[in-house]
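pasting for the record
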Amino acid sequence: MQNNGKPKPPRQVLDVVVIGETLTDVVTTPGGTTEHPGGSPANVSYGLARLGVSTGLITSIGPDRRGEVLAEHLTGAGVMLLSGSRALERTSTATATIARDGSASYAFDITWDVEPPDLAPTPPKILHTGSIASFLSPGAGEVKAILQQLHNACTVTYDPNIRPALLGTHAEARRTFEELVHLTDVVKLSDEDAEWLYPEKTTEETATHILGLGADLAVVTKGSSGSLLATSSASLSIPAVKSTVADTIGAGDSYMSALILGLLTRGTDGYAPSVLEQLGRTAAAAASITVSRSGAMPPTGDELRGKLQHEPQLHSLS
């Protein structure tokens, strides 16, 4: 067949591709309304880009002003929005209304539908997903299909980031979670996620259960109590890095971004205890930087390296 067109440039192989929701967080208080970029997968991609990792995002935003703001936020940090990411008629929102007494009510206007590109010809080194995107139809079906296609071609990381109001019944959510764990290598969840999914289990028992479902590494974050990293042959408790806390917004996503960076740079020692320690301490350092300032503002690569170099109990990031 004759090709009269210009040669197609080779497709870029990205270090990480993230698939999941991007939305606008709307916060209404008696003093007014503010809007902020949101969505756990989008936050992870943003954090990765700020750490200097070549990152693509498969998401779903609309052609409206909110979508434009989110796109500028992500691409400004270096995230590549992959094809199919502008499929919605309007950008999704999560609204928190704070009353004068401090009580909060929440409303969600979220549609998750996605038209993912074919990643099989050029799979990334790591594929990450999680949160609403892994539970909410119809897009959750596409997420699962991508994991089924690529889980033998790259490392797959997963953070369920449980949002009970959007998940249907507990039994359905747990079944969906466990079906995806089978297609992943690294599962990270918070202690609140673990307690919601498995109220009958301790943190350690939940990690063991996740490993039994097929994951190679289970990570449970516990806020100021640190984190647990477990494999079939080792289990390490990593302390949190002390920090003056402004707020905890984005801390878990920042931890996840740095954990993925650690997986990219860990060398050839697999999940040896020394590797687990390095992964946990690097991620804890990133989270400590994020909580020290207001809003979901993860560290840059230089900030993270500086933190690791100047904290005597931490190791340097190669």
